[in-house]
Design a protein that fits this description.
Blueprint (H helix, E strand, L loop, with lengths): L1 E7 L2 E6 L3 E5 L3 E3 L5 E3 L11 E2 L16 E4 L2 E6 L4 E6 L2 E4 L6 H7 L15 E7 L4 E7 L6 E6 L8 E5 L6 E5 L2 E6 L4 E4 L3
Antiparallel strand pairs: 1-2, 2-3, 3-6, 4-5, 7-8, 8-9, 9-10, 11-12, 12-13, 13-14, 15-16, 16-17
Length: 196
Amino acid sequence: QIWNIVGADRDFYIHHESSLFVAQIKDKIQGVDGQEISLKVSEIFASPAQEVVPVKRGFAGTQSQFGWVLCKLGYCFIDRRAGKVFIANGLRIKEISKNGMFNHFKDNSQTDVTTVDNPYIGNGYMMGWDEQFDRLIIVKNDTSGTSFTLSYSPDLNEGNGAWVSYHDYTPHVLMDNVDGLFAIDNVNYKVFKHNY
């Protein structure tokens, strides 16, 4: 089952429940003289989509339609079933949940999803990117009471990244654009601009 499809630069991520596949767009070819030639019409994919980590049981899948964000770090997402958070860049993948939060995500990644994964109604994951403070924000809303908001900075730990903080808010929606990062509380009908 496909949960998400997103394009980034020349990579096209096809995210299944149990695994992540990447197709690379072919819009350039090598000329006879060795120079790169841009194609006016792309052949779409250079080759069939490749599984990032081809193992029988799958790896780096997702079971959350909103638990991802495409930002300058790459394609960031949560695998609820495995209790892990990843950043993908093409065929390279990095697990960031193991940087000090392995047990937290392993123990708290499942949501009380009975019929729908939807943080807009208070049940599921949401991610956003805070450009001002260079941090990834992950929100889990859960009707069973294990909701949380965490932030991750790629700059800490000598550039290897680290989890920064738990936060005392759990918005239903995170949206980022050129004007900043916004959090929406659907219960109280409020919009908050971060770092304002």
